[in-house]
Amino acid sequence: MPHDTIVAAALGLLEGLTEFIPVSSTGHVLLAGHFLGFDSPGRAFEVLIQLGAILAILGVYAGRLWTIFSSAPRDPRARRFIAAVLLAFLPAVVVGVLAHDFIKRVLFETPILIAAMLLLGGIVLLFVDRMAARPRYLAAEDIPLPVAAGIGAIQCLAMIPGVSRSGATIVGALLMGASKRAAAEFSFFLSMPTMAGAFAFDLMKNRDVLDAAALGNVAVGFVCAFVSAVLVVRWLLGYVSARGYGLFAWWRIIVGGAVLLGYGMGLVS
């Protein structure tokens, strides 16, 4: 099996394992790909394999999505929740379209920045997770429109690789009064339009640089991301409800700190 195919499979597994936990899947995949010498034309691979994670969350939440949309015509709570997710999605559309080229050509190519964001984000997540504030919103569907708009604005920070889309939205939701479970679930639902939009836009922008080999690697990464993401989504809510986000915060600090130390000592480049 070609080296790039093996690496694509490993990166796909890594994407699925990290997409929905607040550790920055893109940051992990970019760092791993950089140190493994993986060639990604237009840095499209790292975005396109997220389709596997999108389909995983759609599969796991198919029943709940059906209930929400089928009841929306007669249920104000369902309509408000759909509006909240779409409202939270809008800031990422604007920033993603305007800053796409800068993000891909500059931020995606700066491993030290990614590591620093992993470390800093871990410290922030650890602090927020230990806050003893009593949650006001116990379910994702209870999050009101103004709070959803704030979460959407905070999600834009995740355009910087290493910050973490799920990490930014979860921290934002926790700070605005959501329970740990509600924060994770709202992040799940918000990921669907956000990641689907990023996938479609990136595919359109990079369609001319994706040859058969690149598309083959994307397909391998997609399948692996789907399988590992299904496992994570089914496990995550129960874990964070009982134990919070401390484990993920420490993981970010260790990975980010190790990479920065490696650069500081000249061990990696």
From TrEMBL:
Q: How does it sit in the membrane?
A: Multi-pass membrane protein
Cellular component aspect of the GO annotation: plasma membrane
| InterPro entries, A to Z | UppP (IPR003824)
Q: Which UniProt keywords apply?
A: Antibiotic resistance, Cell membrane, Cell shape, Cell wall biogenesis/degradation, Hydrolase, Membrane, Peptidoglycan synthesis, Transmembrane, Transmembrane helix
Q: Which residues cross the membrane?
A: 48-69, 81-100, 112-131, 183-201, 213-237, 249-268
GO BP, sorted A to Z:
cell wall organization; peptidoglycan biosynthetic process; regulation of cell shape; response to antibiotic
Specify whether Transit peptide is a keyword of the entry.
no
Concerning Pfam families, the annotation shows:
BacA
Q: Where in the cell is it found?
A: Cell membrane
Provide the catalytic activity annotation. Answer: di-trans,octa-cis-undecaprenyl diphosphate + H2O = di-trans,octa-cis-undecaprenyl phosphate + phosphate + H(+)
Is Cell wall biogenesis/degradation there in the keyword field? yes
What EC number(s) does its UniProt record assign?
Answer: 3.6.1.27
Q: Name one GO molecular function term.
A: undecaprenyl-diphosphatase activity
Query: Family, per the entry?
Result: Belongs to the UppP family.
Q: Which PANTHER family match?
A: UNDECAPRENYL-DIPHOSPHATASE (PTHR30622:SF3)
Q: What does this protein do?
A: Catalyzes the dephosphorylation of undecaprenyl diphosphate (UPP). Confers resistance to bacitracin.
The remark listed among the other comments is: Bacitracin is thought to be involved in the inhibition of peptidoglycan synthesis by sequestering undecaprenyl diphosphate, thereby reducing the pool of lipid carrier available.
- Listed name of the protein: Undecaprenyl-diphosphatase
